[in-house]
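Attaching the record inline, Q. Sequence:
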Amino acid sequence: MALKPKEAFDAQAFLDSAGVTRKIVEYQRAQVIFTQGDPCESVLYIQKGGVKITLLSKAGRQAVVAMLGPGDFFGEGGLAGQPVRMATASATMRSTILLVEQQAMVRLLHEQHAMSDRFIVHLLGRTIQIEEDLVDQLFSSSEKRLARKLLLLAQYGEYDKPVRTVPAISQETLAEMVGTTRSRVNFFMKKFQRLGFIDYTDYTDGLTINNSLLTVVLHD
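Structure, as predicted:
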């Protein structure tokens, strides 16, 4: 059976599934959903909004490891035996999150084939993303890494649009995602804007990403 894209997953049918222990929670921007070290008790699904996943090292360094949006699952580590959360999740904007208890999620994956297909697509996509991020971190300059992150935030390749607008994101967060300093991010952002690759004149309205930014990623 062919895997289905996340757009094919019927979220409303998931919500209406009989016997599923679940709840829907509204989170405000910057509100913490769960914290690194919390017990793994549920799997979460983003209905609306966005979620930032951050990891804090023992040395006190923080890194943004994922930026998620509607249709994404997160917090699924408990299904693989993780007793506690390995990272912190917080809302990047006002968000509606569906929480499903782990045992209920296991039952859904066994009983609903469409659901399990969608979840497999999610896991494979997350694995591919992690591998690409690792290669990018090892072999690409900070300028290329920043350009790639901006294109990913704009969902480049998923929609046939030459220009996209993404919600406002701080340079501090971008620096944590790229693995560099805020001053370097500021330098490259100004360069990208000067070249017409991006626009953030009115930062409160979000960040405009032009597909031409891809030239930075492809340039040797």
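Residues 6-137 form a domain with the Jelly Rolls fold (CATH 2.60.120.10). The mean pLDDT is 85.

More tomorrow.
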